[in-house]
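Much of what follows relies on a compact textual record of a protein's fold. Each token is a code from a learned vocabulary of local backbone shapes. The record below shows the convention in full.
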Amino acid sequence: MGEGLVMVGVSGGVDSSVAALLLKRAGRPVAGMFMKNWEDDGRLGECEADRDRLDALKVCAALDIPFHTRNFSGEYWNQVFTHFLAEYRAGRTPNPDVLCNREIKFRTFLDHARELGAGRIATGHYARTDCVDGRHRLLRGRDTNKDQSYFLYTLGQAQLAATEFPVGELPKPTVRDMAREAALPTHAKKDSTGICFIGERDFHAFLAQYIPAQPGEMLTPEGRRIGTHQGVMYYTLGQRQGLGIGGQRDASGDPWYVVGKDVAANVLYVAQGNASHWLDSRRLLAGEASWTAGTGPVDGLRCTAKTRYRQVDQPCTLCYHNDQLLVTFDQPQRAVTPGQSVVFYRDEECLGGAVIAATDAPIGGMTFGTNP
């Protein structure tokens, strides 16, 4: 670990609390910074930010380290949330956590930490770094169930060189035990979920504030009308809950799934029961690639990839196709979703990733040809 002041991004959660605890116990000069990244007008319930800030302040007081707070809500709106809305309007399903990490936690936060005299930053992410022959690598967290490297693939050499992940070597139960033994006020606090920095909400109601409902037809792949949807942007591939499909004549009692979207025609496609063949794809195109090493790997690389968080690694071949990546999987993949990220690995190392643009799924898929 490097020398000098380390600024910990204290979120008011147990993971960042223990990250600060570990650095303090190691004799490092430590300070904490709480980032407020969303201005809540109260329309969708009580804002969590004030409670999280108070918890973060209590942790820093318990550890006897300086506490700072910054409001990055303007940066979050301009650099993350506007893109988030644009993707939904286009019918894609974005991953705001990836962009939030790139733009806020490992850019804006890093800049402000340096202004306060910190040479390095630390967060409570379950990931690890090392340096081999002068190259900084992003590695999976030891706790495979909590590994968050998927959300960190946009970090480059400059960010990795300045960042520490103190809990990355630990399993989550150990982190909670350490917080309890140290009497940290966040030791029993449940893990946060929901949109990055916005928290747990009725997502449909939240999104409807910014993207008005646009009802349209809900069809089977064969063209049979099943009902009406409220707007294709509110649904994602593979979704089962919240479709509002009641009993259908001549239909079984099996659940219905979203299997495709036609944004231009405002049509949502659904299928019942074993719908996997409508959701399967073997190839995808992805853009906006980011590589932790700073440069991309060789054409034709064999590696593994995830198209969603916590997915089991899938063997694939990565090729360059004009200004995009063509990823061919050894086995069909279910519900690969444009707007989400495909993230590449070689053993423990996260190589980088890209944003999924299209797949060869049966509904709305693209034909890539045999020799792109």
